[in-house]
Amino acid sequence: MDARQMAAMAEATRLTRQGRLAEATALIQQTLASPATTRRAPDAPRTEETTRLTLDAPRTEETTRLAPDAPRTEEETGGAGVRYPKPPPARPRGRIQPMRIPHGWTRRLRAFGVRGTSEAGLAPPHAARPGVAADRFDAYSYTNAAGTRGYRLYVPAGYTGDPLPLVVMLHGGTQDAVTFAAATGMNDLAERDTFLVAYPEQPRSANPGRYWNWFDRRHQRRDAGEPSLIAGITGQVMDDYAVDPGRVYVAGFSAGGAMAAVMAAAYPDLYAAAGVHSGLAYAAADNLQSAYAAMQRGPKPRSRPPAPSLPLIVFHGDRDATVAPDNAADLIDDALAGSTDLQLPGTPTGVTSRGQVPGGHAYTRICYQDPGGGVLAERWTIHQSGHSWSGGVPHESYTDPRGPHASEEFIRFFNEHPATRPARRLPISAPRHSPQLELA
User: Disulfide engineering: 306 pairs with which of 111, 337, 402, 417, CB 3.0-4.6 Å?
Assistant: First the structure.
């Protein structure tokens, strides 16, 4: 058993002890289905010849994109050679069923102190109360003319069928839905505050390093390419679950942060607000060369008119050697320039505050307000922090636990910014579902 499997087993043990059996089983399945990988430092230089990629290093589609009619591999669905079902309209209630785990993991889990484990499955830590359902973190897929993307959906135990907020989280390069969820701790917040979280996954067939192709013009437009797939996943969840259409949000890290900016610009009628961590602004690049330039030196001046913008929260470390910190200022400039609220007399003002995480990093927060006092955008600069999710879970993928809690602040900002206009319901392309993955 390699180090990656050991780490996954430890995390599965932690989830099991918390009674989060669906997540534990999903993590075990993901680990066994994925090839072993070597973890590298976020900023370590890597070359394409050896397939070593920096977190945001973009890759062109010319050599990796599948033709629309080409058979889809397991990577297209973000899974292990299977496709996934339509999410159930409501989670089953009543007794929590034991979940089957792969042969051989029983002994390993017991070695980590997990009791009540058998080849039949992970036994619930206690009997479920009648009418109370367990939380879910299941895998699904969505298909349209641009292709197929898998995604994970976290449904909190508090979901009863009443409309909830939905947060769409876009992972960074080399990550997937499970690792990103573990790094950000967003599922724990969803359980605490009762909201849905969707994690679209970029397959290697679309980009060898799983980077969203934020820098490619074909993936910067509404109803085309990857934006159409992410919007389709959002709409599919809204169709299958009770979602408040005025409280749908998009956020991401690194390449996923850059794609979140694309989604905010392309679908301002679908999302109410956006969060970008260590990312780049919409259309900061339109090819591979300009992408590297923007990442390393910050964006060049652009002549395009500002796109309609959403309320935006930005986090960025001032020691980020992968994505230049100047990109955070560019994101804020776009948000202010494209805000319809700026039609009011006067100019936006920035209110600056500073803080210090006990035993951790200092930070500067600037809130940009319209003349009426409403917050248009927030910029958080984490001092002495690099290319990592601030306040993330220790020892997870690209996290810095010594910074302020970005996930907490994103959710706080989203709660403060419901949509002020009717949300658009997207048409869903069919077919979109396929048989459910079963654990052996």
Answer: 337
